[in-house]
Structure prediction request, 1752 residues.
Amino acid sequence: MAGKIVQKAYSDIKNLKIQGATNIAIAALEALKSAKDRRQLSEIVLLLSSARPTEPLMRNGLRYVAFNVHQHYDFKNSLGFWADKYIQMCKSALERIAEIGSKRIVNNSKIMTHCHSTAVTSVLKKAKDKYKEFEVYVCEARPLFQGRITAKELASHGIKTNYIVDSAKGTYINDMDLVLVGADALTAEGNVVNKIGTSELAYIAKEADVEFGVASELLKFDPVTEQGYLEPIEEREPKEVWERPPKRVKVRNPAFDVTKADLIDFVVTEEGVLSPHNILSMTHDKYPWMKR
Amino acid sequence: MAGKIVQKAYSDIKNLKIQGATNIAIAALEALKSAKDRRQLSEIVLLLSSARPTEPLMRNGLRYVAFNVHQHYDFKNSLGFWADKYIQMCKSALERIAEIGSKRIVNNSKIMTHCHSTAVTSVLKKAKDKYKEFEVYVCEARPLFQGRITAKELASHGIKTNYIVDSAKGTYINDMDLVLVGADALTAEGNVVNKIGTSELAYIAKEADVEFGVASELLKFDPVTEQGYLEPIEEREPKEVWERPPKRVKVRNPAFDVTKADLIDFVVTEEGVLSPHNILSMTHDKYPWMKR
Amino acid sequence: MAGKIVQKAYSDIKNLKIQGATNIAIAALEALKSAKDRRQLSEIVLLLSSARPTEPLMRNGLRYVAFNVHQHYDFKNSLGFWADKYIQMCKSALERIAEIGSKRIVNNSKIMTHCHSTAVTSVLKKAKDKYKEFEVYVCEARPLFQGRITAKELASHGIKTNYIVDSAKGTYINDMDLVLVGADALTAEGNVVNKIGTSELAYIAKEADVEFGVASELLKFDPVTEQGYLEPIEEREPKEVWERPPKRVKVRNPAFDVTKADLIDFVVTEEGVLSPHNILSMTHDKYPWMKR
Amino acid sequence: MAGKIVQKAYSDIKNLKIQGATNIAIAALEALKSAKDRRQLSEIVLLLSSARPTEPLMRNGLRYVAFNVHQHYDFKNSLGFWADKYIQMCKSALERIAEIGSKRIVNNSKIMTHCHSTAVTSVLKKAKDKYKEFEVYVCEARPLFQGRITAKELASHGIKTNYIVDSAKGTYINDMDLVLVGADALTAEGNVVNKIGTSELAYIAKEADVEFGVASELLKFDPVTEQGYLEPIEEREPKEVWERPPKRVKVRNPAFDVTKADLIDFVVTEEGVLSPHNILSMTHDKYPWMKR
Amino acid sequence: MAGKIVQKAYSDIKNLKIQGATNIAIAALEALKSAKDRRQLSEIVLLLSSARPTEPLMRNGLRYVAFNVHQHYDFKNSLGFWADKYIQMCKSALERIAEIGSKRIVNNSKIMTHCHSTAVTSVLKKAKDKYKEFEVYVCEARPLFQGRITAKELASHGIKTNYIVDSAKGTYINDMDLVLVGADALTAEGNVVNKIGTSELAYIAKEADVEFGVASELLKFDPVTEQGYLEPIEEREPKEVWERPPKRVKVRNPAFDVTKADLIDFVVTEEGVLSPHNILSMTHDKYPWMKR
Amino acid sequence: MAGKIVQKAYSDIKNLKIQGATNIAIAALEALKSAKDRRQLSEIVLLLSSARPTEPLMRNGLRYVAFNVHQHYDFKNSLGFWADKYIQMCKSALERIAEIGSKRIVNNSKIMTHCHSTAVTSVLKKAKDKYKEFEVYVCEARPLFQGRITAKELASHGIKTNYIVDSAKGTYINDMDLVLVGADALTAEGNVVNKIGTSELAYIAKEADVEFGVASELLKFDPVTEQGYLEPIEEREPKEVWERPPKRVKVRNPAFDVTKADLIDFVVTEEGVLSPHNILSMTHDKYPWMKR
Prediction:
């Protein structure tokens, strides 16, 4: 049976006490370290993997550690070693993305983003640190207003920040030079799963011929999509959208949507700038352990 | 000087105490009836016309009454007569639109709408009254959530109603058979000015090859657009969007956007179904008084 | 009660013994002449109007005669007069279309058409009579292969004619200079109802940036579409498509589809070349009797 | 036989000594005044009409004068009267377009234009006269570099002017708020014939979702297009493009191209702002004499 | 000289007695086994390769066996071994595709397919075996009506099946959730060669924003396309289309068309789900013997 | 300090005395051979790399030689060896492209090209050498008219050649079967940097559904784009465009533009035909030394 540490990690992830793909991956791997033996390791991997449906960064981490540990004699030491190594991989991936992506931010440009993505804010803050001048438009991302986190973070870093409702992106898109969003998952055919509203933004950017980029770790590639599985789209509770809707009104609340590869101009990853159509082959090349 | 009745109408319209194009037009014309003489009539027309920037239905009413009264000897009687006549025109226009539009609602179809429009809800309720079965998806229309008014009104009329955040329209659009929205103003080249988010919806409907219709009185045609004036887009107070935004975050809050004619498949008007490219010539034909 | 002449016309139209919009209109009007009095006239109009769902040319003829006869004292003479007049209008409309349309056929060009349309073959034959050199590609128009009638008619008129399956239009479209099709009905928003496959052809022509024209009498405008009615699309018997389909295979056989106005570059009518968005206003202008 | 005045006008127009649609129309009408009698009038109309293929403004003027003179008893006086009246119509049409179009120029906007059009430069100069601030990008319009005339005219009027090669329009289009071009002829289906390169610009503006407007007199509508005639596209001498091309290189030099109605958002005319799909019905309404 | 077995295989393939890429490949390899020595092997490979122009699965098989056999001392044994191995590869590729593709079939969805493809029917039947509920629309695929084979096969497997003429795909496409077709050949730039009508279907699916997938073995990649050769498109006999066409009517009968990579959302292969742009690199990776 | 040879190469490249990517690469490598020791080698690499901003073929050559020489003991011999080897790689890459690309030229087809590219003219001349019949349309490529070099070269090779102004490409594009252009640089996401006007041509080809191919050495891939750097676009002197522009007219003269990967159907490289989305992975595979 999984111990208290694991149970807490599981429920904290499930109940959104821990948010952000990297934080979730770290929490899961820290909990995984508590495994006593190989059998328990497998149980914990199974349990934590099921905490939230759209968390490939975490699931890849659990898979990575399990894969590597199973090849070592010394269970306990190797467990810590590989868990820490994956955590380190996550962190340095973000740093690489910030460094590479910051070069794509052109002086005196305008950039639109949606919701909150650590990869995106890292890119923008790094560009600001290099004394680039630019302006950002942030969509609020109803129902949970994560755009406010982004707006706050950017403005407090000295970046010129505008905040708009999600419906206003069409009004401002023609003034933009770049749209940059994050990702929750990358798929085998090069699609990007991200906060609901992203695919709309991609269509509108295409319509206005504005460059559309994604900043995401290749570690968010979900290898099961290669086997035909569709990335599950979580539908969350109605009350997030409308506290007390009238009778007979059905509130629908999908949390993510899928942006097709052919709407995406480039992806900034820890391995450099790519076409979305290159995600699969680059992942095969760099992370062969992902595919069993 | 304008009397108390006029002052109250002016401030109620300005401060959104009175909402909805028809209600505003009625309030303005009722106030206009208080004019004592022709000079005062002109003053009141001028004052009320300026109460809100995007209200052609009211402005056309003021114009209509002034035009007709100036051709009569008996000022007082003709004032009442023409004001009432315009109010009646507004009401019967809505009824005609409901009747005509209801025929476009196909059994077992799915329809998406945005924000709140009396013309749209009239169409849908009339279709329901004819025992048609259909399902409606309502976008909430941040920042003021007028989609909630629509959802409530439709559901209480027995219509199967779904409610979604504005960003989710891309997720559901492929299941729709029709998008139907209202209008705040119609322009000379056939564009439609409506609640922010409408033009995005039109782009997405085009992308998914879903029919996009507008239900609107021709009386909302703004004749000054024929003279080259652009319909003004009101930018409202930031606090509607974010009560207390962090320092250095600039909140932008445009209330409307412009949907181009070539994204609109048809317009349901009091004079029948039209192409948006026919709005101008039909208005010339039916309402010659609009153009001086 | 309707007499034998009317009964025969009704059943011949219903059972496709009479085909082609003009032939059907003539047959109906000839039968209408047998009406003995005004009451019978109304009954016959009602009966014949219902013979087939998508025949506005005939229905407009019945409407035209009824409207005019009701304004005359001499029932019998005026009935013959107006019936003949409408028949003449149909014939001269076709001649005008042939004359005008033939000017749009450019020397050494390639033209694609679909199914069989008298308006289209008249245009092409008239152009050939003027010694223009061009080549035609005819789609066969499954299930009833009316493309064979077209191919035969054109080839026997000395026009260079190619014949292809409906699926091959995408292969040849890039070599075309023009697509020209007929119409069964025209709608208030400028859409064209025509043999199934037409809307596909229009999409593909748009994709390849090939001009897409329609040759049709304005007399095929269906005035009820202005009142919101959707032009009904006849679904015909499965056995036309597959004589003996296997059990549990459901054969669907819609006879027409709707091509949206914005896929149509021009319409050749008896009143000249138009944008499809002009159909409604031109009809109002030229045929005021269509609208009650 | 046509006298010397007419001969000179004919050859000056033919040899491009007189340029610009308005100048050409004026020259033709001034020459027309020399007609001695009705027979000569007809001869001169015929001769001058053939001077250049794409000059509907002139041809409409000749048609207008002939039509009106033929209804008067006093030949000589009426000839002068109607010729002057048409010249006046041309001039005031340009003024109206400048006034109306200037309202479409938004403060702090960027506008691209192509070649030289008096209607366009009138609009821009009028807007400048109203103290609007904006910036213009002018395409040079090879082979004859008429863009230089435009650039010079605008810059000397104090307008911020940029000059680019025709191939650079794709590089700058995303920064534009409006494209505004003139017209040599307007057609029945709403297409615009203008200097070669215009249709490319329209495609690129559509691709980038930039508003595309045309400034043109309705008097440039060519009524024969309604009868099916295609507006002829003059192919001019190779040496304009390449003085001494190598052997076996064929230089092609079409002077105009056709921009389809559905790429045009609006047309500024002497009768106000229109959809291109409204050109035909507006012309019928305002200039009934154009159509015989 | 090739023996009787080979001659029979050659003529059976050429005359369509054997149909379906896998059956053809098997027949060719079984015949190949009859080779007496290395010289004869080369002759047979040459002969069979030429039996039909668009059969890369067979040609890759011949190439595979020849390549491997030439590296072995024991000719006869190795010939049988590698021929059987390739046949096995074909079979297990189909099984893998069925397994992976079946996961892409969503419950309660509607899927359109064209013509007959074993890969597609395997996917759909496997999905049905997993108790998924869905409905299929099959286009008949004139001239040879292979859609009937598909319809029969699916219906007899208990799948809800609809059958339509090829021209009706535009009518039903907006109701679809997925289009899934097979392939005759895959090219270096990611295009798919398949039964005529496929590229039209892809355009229409794009227009309606419906997902477009291909189910195909990577073994159908044609390596000569990498060297610049265009996949040949067989044009078959006119009488397949029209038994006795009238004089002077030219019947054109191309059997395949090319669907461009950017119209294809994903490809289900034996190596998993891919972007079409990944076909080349995945083939290099998995089948290095294809490229000399 | 760099010697005279290097100084001359540097200034000849900078001042356009040497033109064409291959000529520039050869000149730079020949100069590089004069390096006396490893320190000087580094200095020369640095100097020559900065001669012009958009020359990845040269910069890759310098990088290639430096990389390889640093691994050898014998500096002088290895310097000559690797420099010559790279020069040879450039030459044989062009030959491979000519051979492969010539197979894509279809008999009786029409091909449009822009500016001058040795890769493109090699392809076309090789196709002609194989007795293929085709016709080429060359855009002049203002401001420097390099299209004239292309036209001359093709015509003197016996190829049917047409020459047009850059604005006329929209007029002829619908008659084309293929557009083929060269490249100055290839980027990580698959974009192509080429002479200004190329991206417009790509948009227009897409609009007209005409195949758009690029002929370019993979050696022109710029590896720094993988690290996020944007390929710099040289803006050249105004006087190239307009010798003496009027006061206050600002002449803009960017030399290149960027064509997005999704507008490109295929790339002909020394390693075969590719999707542009494959450029990155193919380069990794074939030229691992490009990436440090």
Summary: The mean pLDDT of chain D is 95. The CA atoms of residues 199 and 259 of chain D lie 5 Å apart.
